[in-house]
Amino acid sequence: MARLIETVAWVHLDERHRILGARSRGRTLFYIPGGKREVGEDDVTALVREVREELAVAIDPATVAHVGTFTAHADGHPEGTLVRMACYTAEHRGTPVASGEVEELAWLTLADRHRTAPVDHAVFDVLAGEGLLR
User: A GO BP term, please (predicted)?
Assistant: First the structure.
């Protein structure tokens, strides 16, 4: 039986049509910043908390908009483990910096797709199809 990991992620694009990616300590692949909900959290609450912990910025909850929900094999987990990632855009205050378990931030282009976790590939493809990621 497959195991499912539920997560939320913040899709943050810049004016050059790049997406912000984060890499955790000890990992090689980048991922779209975010993480797992804690008990009792809804998606917006989890997104605000995770982005604050990982990037030290404040998400404006009133501006959160759903981009899509994507499912793929969970990187670094046993075969049959899936991750379902609900992705959102949102306005924020502050400049993203690596904090918490995040070791490195990078602005990624479509050409960097191979440097990301499998679930991010679908997000990259959708954003590229909409002309938002180049």
Answer: DNA protection
Structural domains of the chain, count: 1
Q: Is residue 35 part of a domain?
A: yes
Parallel, antiparallel, or unpaired for β 34-36 and 3-10?
Answer: antiparallel
**For 56-84, how does the pLDDT look when each residue is reduced to its tens digit (9 = 90+)?**
999 999 999 999 999 999 988 888 999 99
Query: Which sign, positive or negative, has the C-alpha torsion 42, 3, 12, 123?
Result: negative
Q: What is the CATH number of the domain that holds 15?
A: 3.90.79.10
The model scores a pTM over 0.70: yes
- Segments forming the whole domain that contains residue 110: 3-129
Report how far residue 108's alpha carbon sits from residue 14's, in angstroms, rounded to the nearest whole number. 10
What's the half-sphere exposure (Cβ side, CA atoms, 13 Å) at 113?
14
DSSP output for the chain: --EEEEEEEE--B-TTS-EEEEEETT--SBB-SEEEPPTT--HHHHHHHHHHHHH--EE-GGG-EEEEEEEEE-TTS-TTEEEEEEEEE--EES-----TTEEEEEEE-GGGGGGB-HHHHHHHHHHHHTTS--
